[in-house]
Fold:
Amino acid sequence: MPRRPELDALRGLLLVLMTLTHLPTRLNAYSSQPFGFVSAAEGFVFLSAFLVGGSHAKSWDTPVRLWASLRSRALKVYAHHVGLLLFAFTVIGTMGWLANRPAIRNLLDFYHQEPLTALLSSLVLLYCPPLLDILPLYVVLLFLTPFVLLAAREAGWAKVLCLSGLVWLWAQLGLKRALYTWMGDLTWLPIKIDQSGAFDLFAWQFLWVLGVWTGSQRARTKAPQGRASSVLLGGAWVVGLMFLLARYEVEPFVLLTRLPVLLDKWTLAPLRLVNFLALAVLADRGSPRVYHWLKPRVLVLLGSASLPVFSVHLVLCLLSLALINENEAPLDSLEEMAVLVVTFASMLLVAVRHRRRTALTG
Structure:
């Protein structure tokens, strides 16, 4: 699949929203879910899967090449995750302990209680502290992707999507918690469910499989046009607007929020999934036009270096927690401005460095 700058721009926008959400500033109240009951995480996971599916759409005829490519990508993400873990456990953990920073100590509570167990279990992706739980999800999903693509080649996408959807449905009924309860008596299991990360792999794999399928189909065939797509687009506008009005508590749409379990982020609950799919349709149609209109070069730069930029944003987010004192008082305006400037300047520098390195290596 040829590189599409509008998708890089979209990834850049998602990185900006994610960064604003994770930084301890007042802006996170506005950046968390600005377009409905959907965060940047859903878009980032789906878009990553879309690109993986598109770039490997024709590789399933050569399984060895497919396995090698995705294994290499998964190990690269894993290397970034290990680097972030070591930084968190050494630099951030020490700062939180010595300077008595509750925000950091709460973040790494299990590590401070059982450092060796936390370190070893984190390396095998069992222990996932807050903020450090999305890259493990990527690693597992990337390792599973060859199975998905090869199964689709042999059995067809319909069966793969149905199986993935059934696992997602089971996740809504408590599959993850049931597994941890069942394994609770096993002495070798070093952690509990609360230390395993917020994202439910059994639910989020469905979003990933949908993304891989969409990217694969888009790379192999042209998207259908005509009346059906117009009907789909109109429905997406209606659904997206309903959830947007509900998000900002406009009557009578606020009724959609009366059952929060149906909007849960971590299990990718049903209404949340519907909201995301509607926005995905709108973004698919609108992003090329918006890109050609705005030409957001900075967002393209950030999105084209998504993994290193994501990693450095986590480093700066972790460091910014050290500014929250023992009274947990919020940052003042000057501190917030400094945090924002340093964070985004660092992200841009990393993106520029990545582009130069890519240009040199080809």
About this structure: The chain has a mean pLDDT of 89. The chain has 16 helices and no strands.
